[in-house]
Amino acid sequence: MTEEAAISDKELDPNSTRGKIARFSSLLSQQIKNNWQQNYPPESRKHLRSFSSSEVSDLIGIAPATLRQMSLDNEGPQPARSDGNRRMYTLDQINELRSFLAEKRPGQSLQFDPRRRKDDGMQIVAISNFKGGCAKTTTALHLAQFLALQGLRVLAIDLDTQASLTEMLGVQPVLEVGDNETVFGVLRYDDERRPLPEVIRPTYFAGLDLVPGQSELQYFDYETPAAIISNKYVGDEYFIRRLATALRSVEDRYDVVVIDAPPQLSYLTLNAVFAATGLIIPVQSAMIDVASMNQFLYMMDEMLEQMAHFGAPVDHEFMRFLLTRHIPHDVPQVNIAAMLRSLFGESVLTAAVVETTAITNAGLENKTLYELEKGSVGRDTYNRAIESVNAANTEIFQEILKVWGRS
Hints:
By secondary structure, this protein is of the alpha/beta class. The protein folds into 2 domains: about 50-110, Multidrug-efflux Transporter Regulator, Chain: A, Domain 2 (Orthogonal Bundle), CATH 1.10.1660; about 125-405, Rossmann fold (3-Layer(aba) Sandwich), CATH 3.40.50. About 45% of the residues lie in helices and about 10% in strands. The protein has 17 helices and 10 strands. The chain has helices at about 5-10, 15-40, 55-60, 65-70, 90-105, 110, 135-150, 165-170, 175, 185, 220-230, 240-245, 265-275, 285-310, 330-345, 355-365, 380-405; strands at about 50, 80, 85-90, 125, 155-160, 200, 210, 255-260, 280-285, 320-325. The strands form 2 sheets. Strands 6-7-5-8-4-9-10 form a 7-stranded mixed β-sheet, sandwiched between helices. A hairpin with a 5-residue loop joins strand 6 and strand 7 (about 210). Helix 7 crosses helix 17. It starts with a helix and ends with a helix.
């Protein structure tokens, strides 16, 4: 701490606004640390549940009887047995089964092993919008896990200073993400800049890696205006190209990158939009959310015009709107959804993610729908929720496959 800072802190009036904020921040930070250490001690980490034979059959696309016979014939990985003597597979074993079947049935190899081939470009999907509460992070999280469940190699990048995606993927930002361990360390303009692979960490979810977020991400927005004025950073080092440039260093490791962009039009958001090959804009079918999205689109249009003017044009393989937190029997929401579909046509995904207590209850356990054990929520509630999430994610997956020339 500098002498000036020490004097400033010493003279800080505890009853002033700044004094109260400093005290509240310190108290809350300590309580969050205590809660995390109590609920998730170092020896207790998040683990992904195992999957039943019926779930595996659905994921891989083979009949349950075929899967059972493979187990009896000792073909492929051998599952564990549950207390009820049911066959249970880990996600690693499911991916082993995919590889086994792709080799055994070469004519169906793309069905069993959908990972990108040599000439397929790595897909970068940015999830972005202004409005808080539009399920942006929930969308990014479920999409990343869904794609990993399909057998793809996925990298999730958390660009939000709130770092909710990071926490949901089993990393506590306050305790476990140090300085220079986010994408800020990769994008910064000084000698402490790091290669992207150095800040990537594996998660408990097989096939899904993470670049975590935390509050230091804000520094990129503080430093970028001075970098722009300096005219030192051009070409691939230009402020808008820095994330795209970094991602080229991991093209051989991943099939898809999912970016959870900040809830504002920041320099980080612009980096995400520029790097992306696909853009998903989640929006709740309420007029206040649609009005906010309109501002997002208007400001984005102006920024893209400026970027093109300075030699950094942006185009995407696909851009889609996703209706989230949708209540199918709410007449105003239905009308707004119909309005968006009439205005934007096929740019609105057919599936809408329904408003459901299943996602809320899963979040209370620091889990997603894909991680919930059966029986954690009511069967009908869970089925409605997972069907809507799967339908939306399947549409996005199909967009990726189209880019790869598979449909």
